[in-house]
Amino acid sequence: MNRKISGPFTKEKLADLKAGDAVLLSGIVYTARDAAHRRMTEEANAGQPFPFDLTDAAIYYVGPSPAAPGQVIGSAGPTSSYRMDPYTPQILDGGVSVLIGKGPRGPEVIDAIKRNGAVYFAAVGGAGALISQCIKSSEVIAYEEYGTEAVRKLEIEDMPVIVAIDSAGNSVYER
Amino acid sequence: MRDVNVDEIRDAVAELCYETNVFLGADVTEAIHKAKENETSTVGISILEQIEHNIEIAEETGIPLCQDTGLTCVFLEIGQEISLKGGFIGDAVNEGVRSAYVDRYLRKSVVENPLRRINTNDNTPAHIVYDIVPGDRIKITVAPKGYGSENMSRIAMLTPADGEIGVRRFVLDVVRNAGGKPCPPIVVGVGIGGTFDQVAQLAKRALLKDLDEIHPDPYYAAMEQELLEEINEMDIGPQGMGGVTTALGVKIMTAPTHIAGLPVAVNINCHVCRHKTVVI
């Protein structure tokens, strides 16, 4: 039986999740991948605010394909998370509690997950059509000129994910 | 000579771009079904079920299987008895890519320069490989390549002394190091021989083979099978979360090489192993 978790993603809600648990996620998530991570952190280091409030926020690493008429969004599966590793400790220390992507993370990210009581969920890579059906609304909120790499605010409902790294730092990729 | 207007090639490329991104080949779909039946990990089975469900939803909705609709690789085998009319064939191919990616809602994933990184916003230019072959037909294969798996691909210039053992070790090391990153279950394309540049292309072309196709040379057919078994014993599993389904197939292509060399390349594809061919 899949557990259901809805935002806002407070650390209390995430604390007892264990690596390997199947979860259906609902709520608001923000999309960001390579270009947005680079720019958000560069701007933050220059004293500017992040494009959304990081407190208990969820970031989904995705660059969706465009929506056809009548669709909310196109294909929207996760991209490889490790490419965001250089930026992730800063993002987690800033208050983000949920990361959604695919594949293993580096040791600095695992340490930052433990330090902050965050959780890293994996969605199924290559299941972009299926995941698109869980997305109820999509709005670009920053870096529109980046196209697919823009920051979007998505409302998701029952998106299937697996706890890949739990708040204690246990990982499904290390067995 | 037979006249062929390049507009026909443009339209064929456009259609193939869409079809490959939305409809998965029957060989791959069947391999995923079989893998699910053999999978022992509970998480692995649930992931393979989601992958099956994804294939159905893409087919029903026309939404691409994966949001990474790839860098468009186009392989052209052009019969030397053909006379091309109506413009440059390369422009026609790129026009076909542009129309499919812009008009049919595929993701634009190409930047004009590797370091300045400005998106071209129409997924061009395609990577086009031209081969001149006998006859008066044109064979067009479109294979949109996702980069989650492309990034995990590797090349090595081994020496003759490394031999078959060295080649096997390299292939297994590349797959092991890739782990869960290239979206397993994967398809493994292996090139052996040729030159530095040729071997990488052999590995990519190996990914265009039908998964059911058995290598015509029994020596390599056995190697493909044995490598597949060893890879599936690594316990990487679907999405890297453990299990016996790490790869759906290993495909090898070889070429004659130099007395001093043993090039080997491994090109990894995810389970969305997309390619389709038409003949004009």
Features:
heterodimer, A: 175 residues, alpha/beta, fumarase, five-stranded mixed β-barrel, B: 280 residues, 2 domains, four-stranded mixed beta sheet, 8 helices, 40% helix, 25% strand
Folded structure, characterized:
The complex is a heterodimer of chains A (175) and B (280). Chain A has 175 residues and is an alpha/beta fold. Chain A has one domain: Fe-S hydro-lyase, tartrate dehydratase beta-type, catalytic domain (fumarase, Alpha-Beta Barrel). Helices cover 21% and strands 27% of the residues of chain A. Chain A has five helices and seven strands. In chain A, strands 2-3-4-5-7 form a five-stranded mixed β-barrel. In chain A, strand 2, helix 2 and strand 3 form a beta-alpha-beta unit. Chain B is an alpha/beta fold and 280 residues long. Chain B has two domains: 100 residues, no CATH class; 127 residues, no CATH class. In chain B, 40% of the residues lie in helices and 25% in strands. Chain B is built from eight helices and ten strands. In chain B, the strands form three sheets. Chain B has a four-stranded mixed β-sheet. In chain B, strands 6-9-7-8 form a four-stranded mixed β-sheet. Chain B has a two-stranded parallel ribbon with strand order 1-3. In chain B, helix 1 packs parallel to helix 4. Chain B is globular and about 55 Å long.
Structural class of chain A: alpha/beta
Uncertain ranges of chain B? none
The number of helical runs of chain A is 5
Please give the number of β-strands of chain B. Answer: 10
Strand order of the largest sheet of chain B: 4-2-5-10
Fraction of residues in helix of chain B:
25-40%
Number of domains of chain B: 2
Architecture per CATH nomenclature, i.e. the level-2 architecture of chain A: Alpha-Beta Barrel
Number of strands of chain A: 7
The general outline of chain A is globular
Task: List low-pLDDT spans of chain A.
Answer: none
The most extensive interface between chains reads: A-B, 40 and 42 residues
Indicate the CATH class of chain A: Alpha Beta
Major sheet characteristics of chain B: 4 strands, mixed
Through-space gap between termini of chain B: 14 Å
Task: State the helical fraction of chain A.
Answer: 10-25%
